[in-house]
Amino acid sequence: MKKFLLFLLISSFLLPSICFGAAATMYVTVAGAGTKAGGDWDNAMGLAEWDTDFSGSVEAGDIYYVKQGTYTHTSAMTSGTGGSATAPIQVIGVVTATTETPPDSTRWAYGDDRPLLAAGGNTVYSTGSYWLWRNFRMTTTDTHAFRVYTNSIAINVYVNNSGSSGRRAFYIAADSPSLILCEAENANGRAFELNSTRFPRAENCYAHDSTDGFLTLNTGGGLILDSISSSNTNGINLGTTHNTIRGTTIYGNTVGILGGTSGNNTITNNIISENATGASWGTEQASNVFDYNSWFNTADVVNVTTGSNSVTGNPLMNNPASGDFTLTTGSPALDSGMKMNVNMGTVGDYKKNIGVDQDDNESGGGGSSAEATLILNGVAIN
Amino acid sequence: MYKWILLFLLIPSVAFGAVNEKYSYKDLMDIDLSKINASEFNNSTIVGSNFYQQESPDKDIFPNGLTGVIFEKCNLDNVKIKDGMVLGLGNSNRQIKIQNDLEDWKVEKVLGSWKAKEPLNKANFIELGISIDAKDIPAIKQDKSATEIKYEEVSIISIDK
């Protein structure tokens, strides 16, 4: 009898942890270390252990800290598990020198320090909701490559898809996925495909050297904000209606914005420069709003009315052919954007540049190694 | 008895071959290494690198004259395994080719030509309800991939809800 009571007592402590495992913080390196259980850096998971956990055991609130290095995938690494609004699943790339458990944001990886997911013909993704990816790079040829689904966010992620025609680097789907500070190229396909039932969002993103820089499909209402699309066949290809394109620099594409029959779009404060055609629609759509854009193309528009506050002439960017889209002194795009309206109850002159550069004093010279604080839905996300 | 002696001789070379720092943990996708001197690879272990060659099954990307080159945890999909290359633990060496459905399929050589066996991302096909039988691959090249068509259908269904 005593043994049975002892068994019950021990079970009462153990069973909850077995049946309802608590969210865990886990550590991952390329080769792994110690027991490879992932509880700290000395016992970090290797790629194989991470794959097993990611595919089978991940749960809401889990955090993976993944250290700088090349992670070569010999099969797809996928999960269908989701997090929640208060307990997202986070996957965070950190630099080699990280020893802290957990590390803080000073250890986040940028540029070539970001962990590289060398996926080959495979890919790494979750179809679950509430995932947050930050600080990664991926090379792949997969059809849909880096996927972001419902209420999930990718920040500071670079993807290069070198696969065959029509594939994607980023594929964001389902309900309200977001990409922030992400970069993509896809020589034979789409850099960013916004293929979502509701409000896919790309903010501060950079699409280049692709067939489509940004492509909207399905029913979307896509948001392309404060981004750059350069050196693509189509800078932005609208396959849907009700999109917002704002504060974006669209440079050096065959067609800056390809609209087809897309209507109900709001396209303001964008630099549309040195494209063969700036914006081209199959038939004019009266429901579209174009205004406060800067136009400087071989042919500015086909079947598009540009709006009464348009700016023409060279926007005088520093060196856009080499990736510097900042404005020089005297640019007609300075302070020419649509401002916050005084009818909103605000006071003062809220100046706004056209295009992605909002700093009048910027002289160019490459990206920063750190991010500014970003606010999404009222919450600081970096 | 001879098997045990052979195993005894082989294990040290597999387990303790010097790691080739230059070619380990590198992303070398679609890169042809055949012009590189074999001595850069010989008698070393290459760990965790990606040598995937898209759309070209059995591609010969390493130089001739290799000896004692051990691969561990490498992606060697579509790479021809030739004399002197030893596959240790954790590699993949699948042969992959895009079919008329515009999807990647694992293939095998039958009477000199590459025949589709099963989709590379089989789990995704099953999840989307797409046939994984190679007989169902369209006879002519499609405009959209099988998964893209299915994703569009799924989106339409979810909108209808």
Q: Largest beta sheet of chain A, briefly?
A: 20 strands, parallel
Kindly state the number of beta strands of chain A: 34
Estimate what percentage of residues of chain B fall within beta strands: 15-25%
Sum up the overall morphology of chain B in one term. elongated
Beta-strand percentage of chain A? 35-45%
Structural class estimated from helices and strands of chain B: alpha/beta
Low-confidence stretches of chain B: 4-15, 157-161
Number of helices of chain A: 2
Question: What is the H-and-E element order of chain B?
Answer: HEEEEEEHH
Task: Report on this structure.
- The complex is a heterodimer of chains A (382) and B (161).
- By secondary structure, chain A is mostly beta strands.
- Chain A has helices at residues 2-19, 47-56, and strands spanning 25-28, 63-67, 70-72, 77-79, 89-94, 116-120, 124-126, 131-140, 146-148, 153-161, 168-175, 178-180, 183-185, 190-198, 201-203, 206-208, 212-217, 223-225, 228-230, 234-238, 244-246, 249-251, 255-260, 266-268, 271-273, 277-281, 289-291, 294-296, 299-302, 311-312, 317-319, 324-327, 375-376, 379-380.
- In chain A, 7% of the residues lie in helices and 37% in strands.
- The longest helix of chain A has 18 residues, at 2-19.
- Chain A is elongated.
- Chain B has 161 residues and is α/β, with parallel strands linked by helices.
- Chain B has 2 domains: 1-94, no CATH class; 96-160, no CATH class.
- Chain B has helices spanning 2-16, 122-128, 146-160, and strands spanning 44-47, 69-72, 85-87, 96-98, 104-110, 113-119.
- Chain B has a 3-stranded parallel β-sheet, with helices on one face. A 3-stranded antiparallel β-sheet of chain B has the order 4-5-6, with no helix packed on it.
- The N and C termini of chain B lie far apart (68 Å).
